[in-house]
Amino acid sequence: MIREIIAEVYPWESRVAIVEDGRLAEVFWADQNENVGNIYKARVKDIIPGLSCAFVDIGLAKNAFLYAGDIISPSRKRGGHVFDLLKSGQDILVQVKKEAFSEKGARVTGNITIPGHFLVLLPFQGEVSISRKITDSKRREYLRNLVDSYKPAEFGCILRTACLEADDDEILMELDELIKVWEEIGKRYQRMKTPSLIYEDIDVLERTLRDYLDMEIHRIILNNERLRERVLNYLQNKTTVCNGVIYEPGDLFEKYGLEKDIRRALRRKIWLKNGGYLIIDETEAMTVIDVNSGKYTGKDDFEDTVYRINLEASIEIPRQLRLRCLGGIILIDFIDMKNKQNQEEIVETLKRELAKDKAHTRIIGMTGLGFLEMTRKKSRYGVSEIFTDECTRCNGRGRTVNLQSVACEIKRKLVNMDYIQQDTLVCEAHPDLIDEMSNEAGDIAYIEKHSGKKVKLVKSDSLGPLEYILRGQ
Questions:
Q1: Pairing outcome for strands 13-20 and 23-31
Q2: Residues near 219 by Cβ (< 8 Å), separated by ≥ 6?
Q3: Count of CB atoms situated within 10 Å of the CB of 18
Q4: pLDDT at residue 81 greater than cutoff 60
Q5: CA atoms within 13 Å, Cβ hemisphere of 392
Q6: What's the gap between Cα 227 and its chain centre?
Q7: Among 168, 101, 107, 78, which residue's Cα sits nearest to residue 386?
Q8: What are the angstrom distances between the C-alpha of 405 and each of 129, 365, 386, 426, 437?
Q9: Is the pLDDT confidence value at 369 over 90?
Q10: Greater model confidence, 105 or 350
Q11: What pLDDT is stored for residue 396 in this prediction?
């Protein structure tokens, strides 16, 4: 497999794509306010008994949500009734596990984790856990004994997949570094006021590199030359195989066809190469995926036709789960097969493709009605939640692309329109879209400086809410 990382970084957003064999497999998006992984000294504001949760002030516009099961106390490991552990006005150490979005505040946890390339340090747990993707029992036992005999008793660790080929010295050196980070966090907690940011996690690009450096990366392509130097420095002491870090100006997602893959990820219907298709429906409780034969009629008997459709679906479904960042309960309705061996091969193919996923997945098995039941851990908002809003015309039964994502699309195009001969770049759009653009004066200034041209925003009632025209003047 040829794996590439393609990253676009602008003042208003950063986007990082994982491309496997020329197809978009995952996309990570962050705006300038991203704070997942950050650690705060927070203050408890409200305790809600009926929901077993509390709202805490971490210094952002909206109070963060802290579930009772995510509360850590020195006297007990985890969970318990929220009133046993917190009181209003109390200071508490929390980490953002899910960013604030739309009307929702950030979700935080007291179960702090400090991630590295080889290890994740667990300051409030004493156990050593090992990635399920390290399957060699001897290697697992060796790693467990190595870390268990070296670490302080009060710390726990998760050994990541990268430990499979790592030297002992590399693993233990990183463990020392992570413990020093935690000790510094403790010192900052004591001396800083409440609420305060006391530890800032690395940005979305470095986080992606950290998570994917245990695999061979064919190349990394960036739209920012200074960022290229930073990535080269980051890779200098890593043992990963990377054939090159390349700077390419321009709209990279458009250039490499990734924009159309993102747009497809917003659709309910996904066509398979052989003519079959998937229907993906997200509900509040679960995601349901239906496999259909579509245009594919096959050449042999019915069982072989169904097998081939299901086989391609079992390859495409894990990619869609990663790309859309779907999580929770997932039900897959494969086309019924009578051949037991074919059924087993479909499940094995699904497991093999899911092994590429960094998120934890688990196949439960077949339900009584013939659905394949599985779960996937979800730690961030999906493509649909980021780029779309509930449709106001159908009482939320459908979704429409939101103004913010269209405004970001326009800004990306404007900043790369330096080839236009005229001195002014004109964006003509619906008044609501122009108002969204006008709120970001700093971004417009960046576009003008980068392109060497003036930007003119023109309101047009004749264009639809999400329509726009870009031209030179």
A1: antiparallel
A2: 4, 5, 242, 243, 244, 245, 246
A3: 23
A4: no
A5: 3
A6: 21
A7: 101
A8: 39, 38, 8, 19, 11
A9: no
A10: 350
A11: 67
CA distance 185 to 183: 5
**Phi, psi dihedral angles at 185 (to 5 degrees):** -60, -40
What is the H or E stretch that residue 157 is in?
A: strand 156-159
Torsion of CA 470, 439, 195, 210, to 10 degrees: 0
pLDDT band at 157 (very low <50, low <70, confident <90, very high): very high
Helix 204-212 vs helix 225-235: crossing angle, to nearest 10: 40
Q: What are phi and psi of 190, to 5 degrees?
A: -70, -35
Handedness of CA 101, 105, 106, 111 (dihedral sign): negative
**What CA–CA distance (Å, rounded) separates 414 from 471?**
9
Cβ atoms within 10 Å, residue 220: 25
| Least confident stretch, 60-64, 102-106, 247-251, 269-273 | 102-106
On whether the CB atoms of residues 426 and 472 are closer than 8 A, the answer is yes
Q: Which residues on neighbouring strands pair with residue 289, listed in sequence order? A: 280, 332
Answer whether 448's CB lies under 8 Å from 455's CB. yes
Helices and strands in the chain, H and E counts: 13, 26
- The predicted pLDDT at position 82 comes to 56
Q: What are 33-70's pLDDT values in tens digits?
A: 777 889 999 999 988 877 778 899 998 888 999 988 88
Backbone angles phi, psi at 283, to 5 degrees: -120, 175
- Which residues 6+ apart lie within 8 Å of 72 measured at CB? 78, 110, 111, 112, 124
